[in-house]
Specification:
This protein is an all-alpha fold and 374 residues long. Helices cover 72% and strands 0% of the residues. The longest helix is centred in the first third of the chain and has 36 residues.
C-alpha cells in the first residue's frame, strides 16, 4: 500500500495548476475595480457572464484541491522518506523558487499592471500605497511555508510526547471527517469562509499575513495531510455512487453561487462551502478512478505544470491587456490569451527549463532520451 503511485492525484494537481491560465484570463471581463479592463467594460458593454461563471466554477475548488493534495503528498513523502529528505526537498522546490521568482514577479507584475491601467510599463510606481511587496500568484507556495513549519512542530511533538491518547482521539475524529460525504468538514469550511469574509476577505499581504485566509487554506492542507492516514477513503471516493453524488452536489451548489453573483448579490457561504468540499473530493475520486497510468504526453504536461504555474500570470496578463487595444469580443480575446499563454509556457519549458538547472530545481533532474539509430 505504501508504494502505490497516485497517478490520478498527480494529474489532478497538474490540471489545477494549468487552469491558472484559464482563471486569470477571465478576470479582465468582469472584475471591475480589481483588474484592468478595456474601455468597453468600463461603459458596461463588456461584462461576460460566461467568463464570470467559468471563473467562479474554477475558483471554488482549484486552490482547495491544491492545498489538499499538498498536504496529502507531504505526509506521503514523510512516510516513505526521512524527515531530513522531506525538508531538504521542500527547501529546494518551494523556498528557493519563492525567493528567486517571488522577487522577480513583484516587479514584473507591477510593470504589467501599470501597462494595463495606464499603458506604461512602470516597474517602480506602486499600484497601491498600502502594498509594499507582493508575491502575487505565488502566495500559494508562501502559505505552504507556514504549513510545513507546523508539520515540523507536529512531527517533533509526536517524538517527544506520549501520543497514544491523542492518537485515540484522532481515530474517533477520522470516522467523522473522512467519509465520502464530508458533512462535518463542510461545516468547518463554511465557518471558516464566514470568518475570512469578516477578517480581510481574500487579501494576501506578505506580512502580517491574512490569518483568516491562511486558516481557511490550512483546513484543506491538513485535511489532505490526514487523508494519507485514511487512504481507504480514496477507494470509496472512486465508486460511481460517490462520484455522482459529490459532483452533482458540487455543480448544484456552485451553480447557485453563480446565479447569485450574476444578480449582484453577495457570495452565499453555505453553497460555496458545499461546492468547495464536494467538488474537491469528487474530482479526487474521478481522477483516481480513471487515471491508472500516464502516457509520455501526460507525464510531460505534469512535469511542465509547475513552471507554467510560475510563468503564466505575467504572460496571460500582458497578452490580455494588449488585446484591450482592439476591443474584440471578450470570449474571443480570452481564447487568444489562453492559447498564446499556453504556447509560450510550454515552449519555454521544453527549450529553457526542462533540461536546465531551473527544471532540476522545480521537478528534479530530467535526462534527454536519445533515440537509437540503425
Amino acid at each position: 500500500m505504501n508504494d502505490v503511485r497516485y497517478h490520478g492525484l498527480d494529474g489532478l494537481r497538474a490540471f489545477a495548476m494549468l487552469l491558472g491560465i484559464v482563471l486569470h484570463a477571465t478576470l479582465p471581463y468582469f472584475a471591475l475595480g480589481a483588474w484592468p479592463q478595456n474601455s468597453y467594460f468600463v461603459y458596461g458593454d463588456n461584462f461576460s457572464e460566461p467568463l464570470y461563471a467559468l471563473f467562479e466554477f474554477i475558483h471554488v475548488w482549484r486552490m482547495p484541491v491544491f492545498f489538499l493534495l499538498a498536504g496529502f503528498f507531504a505526509n506521503l513523502v514523510l512516510a516513505r522518506r526521512s524527515f531530513t529528505y522531506f525538508y531538504r526537498d521542500r527547501f529546494k522546490r518551494i523556498v528557493l523558487p519563492l525567493i528567486i521568482f517571488g522577487v522577480a514577479m513583484h516587479f514584473i507584475m507591477v510593470g504589467i499592471f501599470n501597462y494595463g491601467y495606464i499603458g506604461n510599463y512602470n516597474l517602480i510606481k506602486p499600484l497601491n500605497s498600502d502594498v509594499f511587496f507582493s508575491f502575487w500568484h505565488l502566495w500559494f507556495i508562501y502559505y505552504l511555508l507556514f504549513f510545513y513549519l507546523l508539520v515540523a512542530f507536529v512531527q517533533f511533538f509526536q517524538k517527544k510526547v506520549n501520543f497514544v491518547f491523542a492518537e485515540g482521539l484522532l481515530q474517533k475524529w477520522k470516522r467523522w471527517f473522512y467519509t465520502p460525504y464530508p458533512l462535518i468538514f463542510t461545516l468547518v469550511v463554511i465557518g471558516l469562509l464566514i470568518l475570512r469574509a469578516n477578517n480581510g476577505g481574500e487579501d494576501k499581504p506578505v506580512w502580517p499575513p491574512n490569518w483568516a485566509d491562511l486558516i481557511y487554506s490550512a483546513a484543506f492542507f491538513f485535511y489532505g495531510y490526514g487523508l494519507y492516514h485514511s487512504r481507504e477513503l480514496i477507494e470509496k471516493l472512486k465508486s460511481t455512487k460517490s462520484i455522482g453524488i459529490l459532483l452533482s452536489l458540487g455543480f448544484l451548489a456552485i451553480g447557485f453561487c453563480i446565479v447569485n453573483g450574476l444578480k449582484g448579490e453577495d457570495r452565499e457561504f453555505v453553497s460555496y462551502g458545499v461546492a468547495a468540499t464536494t467538488l474537491s473530493l469528487g474530482f479526487i475520486g474521478l481522477t483516481e478512478r480513471f487515471i491508472h497510468s500516464v502516457s509520455v504526453t501526460i507525464r510531460w504536461l505534469v512535469d511542465s505544470s509547475y513552471w507554467t504555474y510560475i510563468l503564466h500570470l505575467p504572460v496571460v496578463c500582458g497578452i490580455t491587456f494588449y488585446l484591450f487595444n482592439f476591443d474584440w469580443w471578450p470570449e474571443g480575446e480570452f481564447l487568444i490569451a489562453c492559447v498564446l499563454t499556453s504556447f509560450i509556457c510550454f515552449v519555454s519549458y521544453q527549450l529553457l527549463v526542462r533540461y536546465t538547472f531551473i527544471g532540476s530545481l522545480l521537478n528534479g533532474k530530467r535526462r534527454k532520451v536519445s533515440r537509437l539509430r540503425n
